[in-house]
Predict the structure.
Amino acid sequence: MNVHFEPIVGRYMHLDLLGRSHRIYVEEAGAGTPLLCLHTAGSDGRQYRALMNDARITARHRVIAFDMPWHGKSSPPAGWHEEEYQLGAAQYTTMILSMMSALELDKPIVMGCSIGGRIALHLALEHPERFRAIIGLQAGAHVDPYYDLNFLHRSDVHGGEICAAIVSGLVGPDAPEKDRWETLWHYMQGGPGVFKGDLYFYKIDGDIRSRIAEIDTRRCPLFLLSGEYDYSCTPEETLAVAKSIPGSEVTIMQGLGHFPMSENPEAFLNYLLPVLDRIGG
């Protein structure tokens, strides 16, 4: 029998957030500088599985990913059946800072993708002193609506399948078949209305266009990495963000789409490792 265990360790954390008790699932691997990873809307921390299994990263970094409440293995709070889930910017920021305090992370690197990339810009603006560096993946300041969000939570369609269908075109054409479909499977498993609730932050409450130029990279380095095939956070949008923030560093990743760390990990690591070297140096 050929048995192989990955070095990833998962635990459940009980944490009060905004006056409510939550049971949050956290995974980590490696040791060294904390690297806190934030997943995309409607998915969960499994998107960072490749980083946690790469010895080049875990030899120097404690890689941590948590499933936000309502996502993955993290349960919604008690009473969830009597409310509509909706993610706001202040709530999202509080969640991340609370997780950092609970995990006793001292000036971690934070890396987020999509909504995680957007909130990374908020963190760079509002709490730069809390981070060693910030890496925004697919981190646009805003996105114009290009589909009706009501399709994401209807009784006459399979919620998971419609979520995966909507994001399927955001995966880059060079993504290996296995990784493409694992990325989409995570979306198919999302709870009812969760993807829609996340997009309230992404499309409405998290719009940071009017404040983006106030980010001071002298207080916290900012690196922007975006896939060339993303039409949600386009290369043009990423370059515009970088142009608005003096001192930020931007790279457009060839062949990649909206989920670089999940859809094509090997290609993504070729871009990420030099950035981590810069931060470590």
